[in-house]
Amino acid sequence: MNITLDLRPALGEQSINKLKDTIARLGPNDGLTLVLDAADAHEADRLTEELRMHGFDYYAKGAAGKAYSIIAERQLLQ
C-alpha cells in the first residue's frame, strides 16, 4: 500500500512530526509519497534524513513548478 502525506502549505516541525507518526504506522511493504510546495523543495533535507534513518530509499519528482513529491519505499534486506 502507498500512503500519500500532503505537507503543504509550509514545512516545519509539525511536518516532521507528522512524517514520524506516519512512518511508525507503516507496514514493511508500505510505500510513502510526500507532497510539498515546489518552493519548499530546498527544505526537504530534514524529511529525507528522517526517511534514511528509518530505512527508506527515495527519489524526488517535480510537477511543473507547483508541487514537489518525494516517493519512498523501504530498502529490501539482502
Question: Helices and strands in order, then pairings?
Answer:
Elements: E1 2-6, H1 13-25, E2 31-37, H2 45-53, E3 56-63, E4 67-74
Explain what you see:
The protein starts with a strand and ends with a strand. With 78 residues, the chain is an alpha+beta fold. Helix 1 (13-25) runs parallel beside helix 2. The model has no long low-confidence stretch (mean pLDDT 88). It has 2 helices and 4 strands, in the order βαβαββ. The protein has a single domain, classed as Translation Initiation Factor IF3 (2-Layer Sandwich), CATH 3.30.110.40. 28% of the residues lie in helices and 36% in strands. The chain is globular, with a radius of gyration of 12 Å. Strands 1-2-4-3 form a 4-stranded mixed β-sheet, covered by helices on one side. It has helices at residues 13-25, 45-53, and strands at 2-6, 31-37, 56-63, 67-74. The longest helix is centred in the N-terminal third of the chain and has 13 residues, at 13-25.
Based on DSSP secondary structure assignment, what is the total number of beta strands?
4
Report strand %. Answer: 35-45%
Shape: globular
Distance between the termini: 22 Å
| Helix proportion | 25-40%
Succession of helices and strands: EHEHEE
CATH architectural group: 2-Layer Sandwich
| Strand arrangement in the largest pleated sheet | 1-2-4-3
- In CATH, what is the class? Alpha Beta
What's the alpha carbon Rg, rounded to whole Å? 12 Å
Report the sheet with the most strands, covering strand number, pairing sense and barrel closure: 4 strands, mixed
Low-pLDDT windows of residues: none
Count of discrete structural domains = 1
Instruction: Assign the CATH topology.
Output: Translation Initiation Factor IF3
CATH superfamily caption: TusA-like domain
By DSSP (H or I, 4+ residues per run), the number of helices equals 2
Could you tell me the mean pLDDT?
Answer: 88
User: In terms of structural class, how would the helical and strand content be classed?
Assistant: alpha+beta
